[in-house]
Amino acid sequence: MNSSSPSRSPQGPPPRGHENAQKASNRRSSDSAVPQGPSYAPKGRRGPGAERRGSWQDQRHAGSGRQAAQQDAELQIVLIGKTGNGKSSTGNAILAPPTPPFKVSMGILSATEHTQLAEFHMFHGTMKLKVQVVDFPDVTCDMTDEAVRKEVQLCTTLTFPYSSAICLVVRADVRFTPEEYATYRKTRELLGERMFNNMVVVFTMGDKLPPADRNNFQEQLQRANKELKQVLEDAKGRYVMLSNLAEGVLENQRVVNDDRHIGVASLLDIVIDLHNANVNSYGAKSLRVVLLGSSGSGKSATGNSILCTKPEFKVHTGLATGTKSCGKATASSRGFDLEIVDTPGISPKDGDRHGLSKDVQKWFSKLDPGPDVVLLVAKANERFKDEDYKAFQGFQRVIGDDFNKHVIIIFTGGDELTKKRTTIDDDIKSAPALLQNLLTAAKNRYMVFDNKTTSATKTLLQRNRLLQEIATLKEKNKGQPLQMSKKIATEKNYDTTTEESPVRVQPAQQSHGHSWRCVVI
């Protein structure tokens, strides 16, 4: 994000201690319909102190000689379930920030009317995590079909290309009813079967059960009704138990007799395993992107927004351009490898063919075999500049008709549109002919970016919408990147000795999954 974006490492509460609960020496064997899942206590994450949770700042280990911990995973958890089962409270317990991000209702009305997202950085044992929680509303609570459609679209965009896990929140102290099962089935149908491959059942209100029932919860499930047994089968036997979250009582302790009857810390173990399996199975695809635009259009801020990490590109608000020469940063996010190069903005002299040819050579030297998409960045709240259009025409002439097939226009300054209570569609209707021509060449592919937003939901939403649009365009182009003409390729190479060295942002995951490469110009 740019300098106006919120910190991704808010101060958290002191890490909680953990009492090591007794492990069962032998797991029960049964021919019950309840699936017998594996023990979800991954090797290497247990042991003394493995349950410690808190913000990154809480886990400095001062004087220990240990180097700063690296981010090991970026998790995303989707919460679904019937109103009153404790979805929002579960989200607050997972993140455990100083101020609970999700509103909790103690009455008969739902506190979650729209899809919400919150994120927090924490330690889980020795692992450094970025955890996002998506709280999806109960779609059976007096919602119109149009409202349901919008919430489903919002949730699927926030979870693109996949979520780490989806948690069905169920109360442990009351009977699982056919009506509740119907809500689960409808939500499953709306969000898509693929999302439910990584489902976990979260039982809340565990402390409401008598001690005997709580310690023998496995036996309680053997006598559950057919609907709950089907849900557990859908989850492949993955479930956890939490205490009375609504009253703020959270016991991060494993319940005796079964490793799957666990608290929040061990829930994260399950999610980490599901996340890793999902990343490994998703496959590897590359996506290479070039951003063009004049100085001050918001290219550097847009690059930071796409990175979705700490700001790597300097953003200047003065008259001088913030980017003097090419700079590069890379990052990984939930299976996506991002590579972004920030270079000086377009100026009137860039209409020169030789200068444009040198720029194109720079792209291809950093993005082999070539960019898949060109993002042209312009301000939504300012008149489209003649030099921008002239430079665009210059690139068309240098590269050819193939250039238009790979263009998407990014309008920055979405916050100004919100203040004016207008939309980009309204502004485009009265836009000058130059911009109209540009939109026609780009087949009306455009979107708005707000690089100043402090909303985690909006930040992820606009980023994922862009990634979806880019992936769709690449598929439409049958995976063929933008080609550099032989004439440009044979011209005298430009001097690379003044280029800045790449800056590597620690990846959230190993290089499994998609590779997204971006050049900012």
From TrEMBL:
PROSITE patterns to which the protein is assigned, alphabetical: G_AIG1
Pfam families per the UniProt record, alphabetical: AIG1
GO molecular function terms noted in the UniProt entry: GTP binding
Protein name as annotated: AIG1-type G domain-containing protein
Entry keyword set: Coiled coil, GTP-binding, Nucleotide-binding
PANTHER family named in the record: GTP-BINDING PROTEIN A, GTPASE, IMAP FAMILY MEMBER-RELATED
Keyword Cytoplasm: no
Domain AIG1-type G residue range list: 72-283, 284-491
Keyword field contains Signal: no
InterPro entries tied to this protein: G_AIG1, GIMA/IAN/Toc, P-loop_NTPase
Extent of Basic and acidic residues compositional bias: 48-61
Coiled-coil ranges per UniProt: 214-245
Family the entry assigns: Belongs to the TRAFAC class TrmE-Era-EngA-EngB-Septin-like GTPase superfamily. AIG1/Toc34/Toc159-like paraseptin GTPase family. IAN subfamily.
Annotated Low complexity bias: 1-10
Span list, region Disordered: 1-70, 492-514
Source superkingdom: Eukaryota
Species, as recorded: Littorina saxatilis
